[in-house]
């Protein structure tokens, strides 16, 4: 008797997926947010792990990947955060725009303020800037901080999306929250590479380069738990929290990700990457949401 191995493995894979999905759906929303953010951090670590296989990486491809990251974040900010925030504000009637506008502005303002107050420019203060090598180190350290800073709103966004499930809103769905986490995870991969590979080129060891690359996203699980807990404890802040995360993410796309992707003159391919990232995130959100 012959065995249909293809069908057998298909049934086995489907069974595992169903068990895993049911298990995940039955967890608390805070635990779901933590697990989702651990996934996004893991994708950053996976991108940083490229330093174990290569010291140099095609710069055009890296800039395209960074552009892709920016496109994913732009799409996620609207479909997964801003649009639900507006939908949840219909009780304000003609002022339904107010929570989204206020939260969005506050998110951008807080990131802008953090950008000015936190000592990220001191990270390279002890490095001499007269030589090109020292300048590369300083720029890389600034990039490490910039990506770490903008991973905070990414973690908050994941936490808020899963925390919204506890509020019982029609606009909140597990699929949409998972889509957001997948999208952020996808765009975290090139960010991990963007931090680790320049460090490796600057002469850092593989292990040290990987450490700093993955470290840039370690704040995401922490921020996700905080976001989910805050929304669960205080449901009326939901539209403001969603818009806040969107404003913070848009700020870092404009301030850090997009400029970094175009800084070396690869503007066309970086723009194409951003368009592709936007389309991928849009498809994820519509398909899963």
pLDDT averaged over residues: 79
Q: What is the string of SSEs from the N terminus onward?
A: HHHHHHHHHH
Q: What is the rounded distance between the termini?
A: 44 Å
Report the helical percentage.
over 70%
Indicate the low-confidence ranges by residue numbers.
119-131
Which term fits the overall shape?
globular
Rg from Cα: 20 Å
| Count of alpha/pi helices | 10
Major sheet summary line: none
Compute the number of strand runs.
Answer: 0
Q: Percent of residues in beta strands?
A: under 5%
Structural class: mainly alpha
Protein traits:
10 helices, mainly alpha, 77% helix, 289 residues
Topology overview:
Layout: H1 5-25, H2 29-48, H3 59-87, H4 97-117, H5 132-163, H6 174-201, H7 206-215, H8 219-233, H9 238-262, H10 267-288
Helix pairs in contact: 2-5, 2-6, 2-7, 2-8, 3-6, 3-9, 3-10, 4-5, 4-9, 5-6, 5-8, 5-9, 6-7, 6-10
């Amino acid at each position: 008797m012959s065995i249909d191995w293809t069908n057998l493995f298909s049934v086995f894979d489907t069974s595992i997926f169903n068990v895993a999905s049911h298990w995940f759906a039955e967890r608390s929303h805070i635990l779901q947010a933590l697990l989702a953010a651990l996934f996004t951090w893991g994708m950053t670590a996976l991108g940083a792990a490229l330093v174990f296989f290569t010291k140099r990486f095609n710069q055009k491809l890296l800039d395209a990947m960074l552009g892709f990251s920016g496109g994913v974040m732009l799409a996620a900010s609207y479909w997964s955060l801003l649009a639900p925030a507006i939908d949840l504000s219909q009780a304000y009637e003609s002022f339904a725009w107010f929570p989204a506008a206020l939260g969005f502005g506050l998110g951008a303002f807080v990131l802008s303020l953090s950008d000015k107050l936190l000592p990220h420019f001191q990270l390279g203060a002890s490095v001499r800037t007269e030589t090109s090598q020292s300048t590369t180190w300083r720029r890389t350290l600034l990039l490490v901080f910039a990506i770490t800073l903008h991973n905070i709103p990414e973690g908050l966004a994941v936490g808020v999306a899963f925390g919204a499930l506890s509020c019982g809103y029609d606009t909140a769905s597990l699929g949409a929250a998972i889509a957001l986490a997948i999208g952020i995870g996808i765009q975290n991969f090139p960010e991990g590479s963007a931090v680790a590979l320049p460090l490796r080129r600057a002469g850092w060891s593989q292990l040290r380069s990987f450490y700093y690359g993955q470290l840039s996203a370690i704040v995401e699980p922490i921020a996700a738990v905080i976001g989910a807990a805050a929304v669960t404890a205080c449901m009326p802040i939901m539209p403001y929290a969603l818009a806040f995360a969107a404003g913070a993410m848009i700020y870092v796309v404009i301030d850090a990700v997009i400029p970094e992707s175009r800084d070396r003159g690869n503007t066309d391919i970086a723009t194409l990457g951003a368009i592709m990232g936007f389309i991928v995130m849009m498809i994820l959100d519509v398909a899963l949401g």
